[in-house]
Automatic annotation (TrEMBL):
Pfam families: HTH_Tnp_1. Signal peptide: none annotated. This is Transposase. InterPro entries: Transposase_8, Trp_repressor/repl_initiator, WH-like_DNA-bd_sf.
């Protein structure tokens, strides 16, 4: 009977690597705590920046979309402000005309 290899999610890997980076425990203590070999943890630590690099392009795309949406909303606010000011002026003009004509 062959033993099935355990797979770890990126979240689990990041959690273990962050424990190492905090330097609260030794590598061996952390490996025993999580049941992972020290060599595997060391490999995860070297791979960690590449995990963040893959997501950075997604983050940049989200930032661009957010900036475009923000710009659109700012333009809408500006247009609504102009419309509101125009309506206020027209309302005042109409009220003045009604006062003049009894």
């Amino acid at each position: 009977m062959s033993k099935k290899r355990k797979t770890y999610t990126p979240e689990e890997k990041a959690k273990v690597v962050l424990e190492i980076l905090r330097e609260e425990s030794t590598l061996n203590e952390i490996s025993q705590k999580h049941g992972v070999s020290p060599q595997l943890i060391s490999r995860w630590r070297t791979e960690l920046p590449t995990v963040f690099d893959k997501k950075s392009s997604q983050i940049e795309n989200m930032k661009k979309e957010h900036a475009a949406e923000k710009e659109d909303l700012i333009n809408q606010i500006g247009q609504l402000t102009v419309d509101m000011n125009w309506l206020k002026k027209k309302q005042q003009q109409v009220l003045e005309l009604k006062k003049r004509k009894p």
